[in-house]
Write a structure and sequence with these properties.
Elements: E1 10-13, E2 29-32, H1 44-61, E3 70-75, E4 82-89, H2 93-102, E5 107-112, E6 115-120, E7 126-131, H3 132-135, E8 146-152, H4 160-165, E9 177-183, H5 186-195, H6 209-214
Antiparallel strand pairs: 1-3, 2-4, 2-5, 3-4, 5-6, 6-7, 8-9
Length: about 220
């Protein structure tokens, strides 16, 4: 199954060490992960163990003369979700699909002629994600994240869920309420808070129900 969020994936390759060659992204390669098998969220320890087994399997299946594996972070467009992955050269679609299926993955990415496609591990379905260049990113500097502040209607102070999360506000009913968040794309994040994810957004990313109800 190809989930809509797969089509918005960004890729952050790990920079090679001084004694390692620079990856040649011009040759066809696959990107696979063992994180979150079956589409369910697992803790880091389980995912890391699975990825170590995947690395061993990829090294067993790739040609001996093929380039070394490259670690790649596959991240959601808003950077809220990351799955550690590997770029691997020398496989064909069938082998990549078999490995993905072995590790209970829905899909894998295939990059060829500068274009990224996502392929199902269970059917012949594939969809275009975009150009490799457009989906390629560097690990963002922590200062690239912007802080935003939203003023909410005073009525939020009477909301039971809000009172439970902010018990001190009961003693100061005359105070206003500010919602503080952070994002790489503030306008998009506020839109999702107010109206929910749109057709082109990652459906996993949800907004705050308090912001939606009490936006001033």
């Amino acid at each position: 199954m190809i989930r809509p969020e797969y089509l918005q994936t960004l890729f952050v390759p790990k920079k090679p060490k001084e004694n390692q060659p620079t990856p040649d992204w011009s040759h066809p390669f696959a990107i696979l992960t063992a994180y979150n098998p079956g589409g369910k969220r697992y803790d880091d320890a389980i995912n890391q163990r699975a990825n170590r087994r995947l690395r061993t399997r990829l090294n067993q299946r790739r040609p001996r003369n093929s380039p070394l594996l490259v670690k790649v972070d596959a991240v959601s467009e808003d950077w809220s979700h990351t799955e550690k992955s590997f770029a691997v050269w020398g496989l064909n679609h069938k082998t990549a699909s078999e490995i993905g299926h072995e590790f209970r993955q829905d899909a894998f990415f295939w990059v060829e002629n500068g274009t990224v496609h996502v392929h199902s591990c269970h059917t012949q379905e594939k969809q275009k994600v975009g150009t490799w260049e457009s989906r390629l990113r560097e690990q963002p500097n922590r200062f690239a994240i912007r802080i935003y502040v939203i003023e909410l209607k005073p009525a939020v102070l009477r909301n039971h869920a809000f009172q439970q999360q902010n018990p001190g506000c009961r003693k100061n009913p005359g105070l206003g309420c500010l919602y503080v968040g952070s994002s790489h794309d503030v306008d998009k994040r506020i839109r999702i808070h107010r109206f929910g994810p749109g057709p082109g957004d990652n459906p996993i990313v949800r907004g705050s129900t308090l912001v939606k109800r009490y936006f001033l």
